[in-house]
């Protein structure tokens, strides 16, 4: 019983830490108590514990933010799960070319994880999408870009008999429809999300491959729907170039800037 109590306390402490991180320095004990359904006295106790350990810091006005210990943990996690420096350089190039919010995701252990992103000049809000996100693989352009190039039996094992949640009215919720969409992605070499994950936002994504020809991740750009239609061709070219550069690096071990007419 005592072990369960200790684990429960730890779980609540981690929930408080996550909520503090998400609040960007605006969290107070009263707000956290209401948000998480934790008694105010317990919330204060958890915050004091996190404060003593350096996981949070107290700001003026009774507000809390992430502390140096939590920031250090985040840096360690990013080093382990983030993209290599070379792939980060390609992401920066993609961002500089498009001036739109640009993402890199990595395929590992049957999951596509958002590893890093750079916000555009006019950043768009895409739900709860953040570094480490792995959900709704049927709705995200990056996931479709990778799934299209996996063995069909592997994709079937992941989705057949599994309910495909409607994230927006445009989300594909039928497995047969999804397989048709993946076949289209395979033919054209890139995937498009037309407000399937977030209303008012469209994305285009292209996969990159390792030296065995297996997909290992994808580069993605997201833009408001109103801007997507006029920029689709340019954005598609940019993400495909980024993916081709990453594939070249993974196969040859060095980065090469592609010629302007590389896709012809």
UniProtKB/TrEMBL annotation:
Residues in HTH iclR-type domain copies: 7-68
A Pfam family matched in the record: IclR_C
Listed SUPFAM superfamilies: GAF domain-like, Winged helix' DNA-binding domain
IclR-ED domain span: 69-253
InterPro entries membership: GAF-like_dom_sf, HTH_MetabolicPath_Reg, Tscrpt_reg_IclR_C, Tscrpt_reg_IclR_N, WH-like_DNA-bd_sf, WH_DNA-bd_sf
Keyword rRNA-binding listed: no
Gene Ontology MF: a single term: DNA binding
Keywords: DNA-binding, Transcription, Transcription regulation
GO terms for biological process, alphabetical: negative regulation of DNA-templated transcription
Name of this chain's protein: IclR family transcriptional regulator
Organism encoding this protein: Nonomuraea glycinis
